Structures are given as C-alpha cells and as structure tokens.
Amino acid sequence: MYFTRTLFRATQKVTTGLHGFPVHPNPRPALLDLYKQTLSELETKIPQHAVYRQATEAITKHRMNIVEKTEDVNEIEKTVGAGQIEELISAAETELRLIPYLAEAKPWEPLEEPAPEGQWAYFKNQTSTS
Description:
Its main location: mitochondrion. The protein is mainly alpha-helical. The chain contains five helices and no strands.
C-alpha cells in the first residue's frame, strides 16, 4: 500500500510554475462541474440569439467534450491548447462570474438611442490629397 501511494504522488504535479495558480487537487471533475454550470447559466440567463451565448456555448461544449473523453490531465492540456488545467479552471470560473453581469447589461438589445451617422466608421480608407 505504501509503495503505490509513493508512486501515485510521484506522478502528481508539485507546482504549476505560475504565480497565483496552485496545483488543483482534483482538476478534471472541478472543470467539468464549472462547464456544466456555465452551460446551465447561459441557458437560463442569456437569450439564444445572443452572439455571446453562441460563442461561449461553442467553446464550453468543445472543451467539455475533450475533458469528458480524456482522463489524462496532460493530454487535456495539450488538446485544449490554452495552458495548464489550473488556468482552464480559472478561465471557466471567470466566465461563470461574467454571465450575471451580461444578463443584467443585456448587450444584445438594441441601443437606447440610435448611433450617430458614421459612429462605427473609424477605419475607412481615406484618400489623401498629397
């Protein structure tokens, strides 16, 4: 029993090497839970036509599919390609905290006042007369 415990600890990550990101003791289930919560919050608080919901659902479902299919944390990190699993957990937590703010702000609704003419034309090519 003692021998296998030592081998198990040898395979565990000691540090992330990133300040402020301690090693998570059980990252895969935590990440799956965060992804499920995010999808649930999106369904209940953000309308289906909102671009934010569509984009966030697509990313979350894609990553959740990878985490569900893959047991090995190193393989999850490689496949997702967005850093260590602790960074993925942090990003998922941040996304989950963002949803209530967006639900309150409702950025998918039309503007209260119409935008002035040329409001969004910052980068039009201008012909110079030099």
